[in-house]
Amino acid sequence: MEGALTARDRVGVQDLVLLEDYQSETAFLNNIKKRFKEKLIYTYIGSVLVSVNPYQQLGFYTPYHMEKYQGVNFYEMPPHVYAIADNTYRSMRNESSNQCILISGESGSGKTEASKYILQYLSVCSASNEQVEYIKSRLLQSNPVLEAFGNAKTHRNDNSSRFGKYMDIEFDYRGAPVGGHILNYLLERSRVVHQASGERNFHIFYQLLEGADDVLLSRLMLTKSPDKYAYTNQVSSPKYNSIAILYDNDLKYTIDGKCAKVSSICDRRDFVAVQKALKVLDFSPKNIDELFCIVASVLHLGNVTFTQNEDGHAVVERQHEIQKIANLLGCQYEQLLQALTHRTIEANKEKMQSPLTVEQALYARDALSKAIYGRMFDWLVSNLNRSLTNKDLMRKNVIGLLDIYGFEIFKSNSFEQFCINFCNEKLQQLFIELTLKQEQEEYRAEGIEWEPVEYFNNKIICDLVEERHQGIIDILDEECLRPGDASDNTFLTKMEETVGKHPHFITHALGNSKLRKTIGYEEFRLVHYAGEVTYSVKGFLDKNNDLLYRDLKVAMSESKHDIIKQAFPVTELARLKRPETVGSQFRTSLNRLMDILMSKEPSYVRCIKPNDAKMSGKHFSIVSYNTYRFDETLVRHQVKYLGLMENLRVRRAGFAYRRTHEIFLNRLVLIQSVQSYTHVYTDVTRYKSLCPSTWPHYDGSPRKGVDVLCKYLDYKEGEYRLGKTKVFIRFPRTLFATEDAFQIRKHELATIIQSVFRGWRQKKMFMKMRDAVTLLSAQWKKVLAIRLREKRKKATVNIRKFILGFMTRLQPRCAENTEFLDYVRYSYLMRVKNHLPTSVLDKSFEHAPAALEETGALLQKLNMKNLTLKYVKSVTPQRKAAMEEKVLASAIFREKKKGYDESVGNPFQEKPRVEQLKPKMLAMIDAGEQTLYSCSVTKYDRHGYHPRPRTLILTSTATYLFDAKDGKLKQKIPHQELTGISTSSLGDNVFVLHAPSDKKEKGDAIVQSTFVIETITKLASIAKKDKEVKIVENSSIVHDMAGGKHGRIDYVVGNDVSVTKSKTGLVVVAPAR
Ligand SMILES: Nc1ncnc2c1ncn2[C@@H]1O[C@H](COP(=O)(O)OP(=O)(O)O)[C@@H](O)[C@H]1O
Ligand SMILES: [Mg+2]
């Protein structure tokens, strides 16, 4: 709602205290009318809530709204019944005080609805646990039960409460509801037997007829239609006309009295709810059954009729009806039958049965119906109370909710209206007592100037009604009790005699001629604070007496059923004193109620109905706005009798807020100690924090402190006053400003407290850590020092032992050197292990200490053996062959020919050089011969010494020389024909293959090979001619030439290698070895 409300708050003021023209009733009305048009049904007068019934569901009673109103400043949010509920609840908790909320207003103005919203709010917003939920549900469930039995459809309200209800909700120290208590007042019992046209009996009759299943109905001997029962099917002319239902003719009421069905009510559904609620409230199945039996019995009673016998005495027409009733009520049939038609009278101490006339019998029947129903209702309430009682003895605070009928002014007013209006007078008294009078008195006590407010104190009217011996109630009682022919008219006369001079009492006889026209002979008029009401005295005596013949009481008290038995206790019969009259009873219970309310802090909800036609805006189109929707005459009347203008006047003259100086400075919050039930005050929040002079402490008196504070806050002259003990603030807005400032300040304070606390906590933690660190490091240092000392000690011992061992190392093993020697041995072995040679060529080995020289040598040998073995194992046959060739080369050339040393590192070609082998060449080689080696060589002719490029191929049987270009075989020297191989010791690469020359064979071949060592070694190996290799040193090689001639190759030592032709042959220049 608040969004919508605040947005629309331009429409009128939300606190009537802020009205410019607060004296004007019209301005007042206009304001609530403007707001009502905008669906702003709530308006404040200070802390009093004025509520206008919207007659339609406005969506501002949701859990969301309940949450919004929780714990907020009363004036912060738009007016709402939740704000009242919340304020009351907070006050109860914070100040640990008892509270009450008085809801008043005309019938249909929304009191019961408001009380339900308040109850819901209190239930939702209070603390909770499983047990509390249990009691909450009971509190809430008590409503449908009470409404079923105590509410009825009237002209003004489809769900009108026909009894006054005061409910105490008890809260524990945590603010959780823990129990409740209900007081009921003056149930309108006449409704049981008679309803005005268009009205209904109590809901439960219709609910039972509509909602009960066939089994229950047949057990109760009922049929489903209300029109079968006289009490629910009344046909009578409109008798009860209120000034407010002038419009009945315009509306569609069914004025034939048959209004069992009401569109806004679903009896069947409500009956289910009632049954459920009764179960929740722990009513036993037996009791529930008895309740329905009683309701049914009343319906049957209504159908009992009488005829007159010859003697003029009443006789029951259909006796089986009585049988049913006796059955349902658990009483004796004959006894009941007799009691309905006779009464026992005592004459001269003799009891006699006196028959009743038909009229008397009908009276007795109705009296019984009313009594049964009324007493059942009382029983119901007391049983509800049993279910709601909290037996815990701990201290509890209560919030009371009073929902009681408002002023009733009909065209014809009777005893009921008299009682109701008296009740409202009393409530007005209370209001005056608590607000006006107390307020003024408080100002006086506080020494504050007060501009007296003119208000009407209605005590004079209350006295007129209730004063002992002088008041109307006592006069009525007297007439009821006195012997002789007392009647309603004698009562009127008696009143005229006793209170005739009272300014608020007028009768036809007492009035002037003008007044006489408006008052009948059997009427009297009371000038109530809310207006004049003319009462008809007819029926006053009867209704006050509320006579139920003793015989009927006896029949009831002997019932077998619990409820009836309890409702008509035997003790009542034994009492000799006449039972208290209804008027006296009511006065007593009202005074008790006043005491209850006086002991509490009251809050007010004043309900107003905007029209008498239960109309919301939805019905707008069919009726004119002014007449129906917001009926100004009607509302003006209510504003008047609710005393709202007076209320406003007092508020404006007075101060909106007052608190003791201490509380204002410190805003003490009351906390209840759980253990001791004593009160402990804790200054949780402080306004004094708003002023540097009063914060954090003010040494002077609280009054002076408040003075300083108010001045500092710049309160204007007229806005506040300082009383002796209290500070008074005139306008709520001044307080809001202070509260707002305080809320902001609170955050600042919280921040400061937080930061100081955090700093303190941090520092504390730091100190703790620092101490810990110091301790730890000291301990650690100690540990380290100890370890170092131990280490050093050990080291000293070791060094000493070592030195001694060293000194005696050469001696035989003894105690002194054992360790040293072991160490030396170990370290040597470790060194050997870590530095073992990995190659057979590596001859190095760890040097052994003297004592282990032999071991060292053995180990070295062993290692070498090992390596060799490993090496040998790793050698392949090819490699072996290659190495054998190398060995052969060594045998041939080592230290004999220059160039050998360089060749050692280069491995020999293992296979023929395939690129040199042309197919032509291979073709020339004999089959079965294996080509084992090849290389490119240069061959020099024996004649002319021309160099020729040749390919040399070695097979297993011969040496072949092919023309390197065309692959033609130039020479073949079988191995067995090779007689020698000659080469020089110089660094050249020329060698001669010696072979016999005949005609066929070419003889010696002069060959030059890049791989001279390799080629010669291969040839020597393959041809097994190693012994035939000749190395000439610094001389010449002679070779054969054709025709037995010889050529010569001369070797000359020189730096560069060259092969040149000379006259005698070849000259080879090459470096010497
Ligand atoms: N705040 C409200 N919102 C909506 N409808 C309401 C409100 N208050 C009252 N009414 C309507 O008015 C009817 C009469 O209200 P009720 O509380 O029973 O009146 P009272 O107890 O004063 O006789 C309710 O049944 C309901 O329809
Ligand atoms: Mg009501």
TrEMBL record:
The keyword Nucleotide-binding applies. The keyword Chaperone does not apply. One of its GO terms (molecular function) is ATP binding. ATP binds at residues 105-112. Residues 12-743 form the Myosin motor domain. Signal peptide: none annotated. One of its GO terms (cellular component) is cytoplasm. GO terms for biological process: actin filament organization; actin filament-based movement; endocytosis. Keywords: Actin-binding, ATP-binding, Motor protein, Myosin, Nucleotide-binding, Repeat. Gene3D superfamilies: 1.10.10.820, 1.20.5.190, 1.20.58.530, 3.30.70.1590, Kinesin motor domain (3.40.850.10), Myosin VI head, motor domain, U50 subdomain (1.20.120.720). Residues 885-1073 form the TH1 domain. Belongs to the TRAFAC class myosin-kinesin ATPase superfamily. Myosin family. This is Myosin motor domain-containing protein. The lineage of its organism: Eukaryota, Metazoa, Chordata, Tunicata, Ascidiacea.
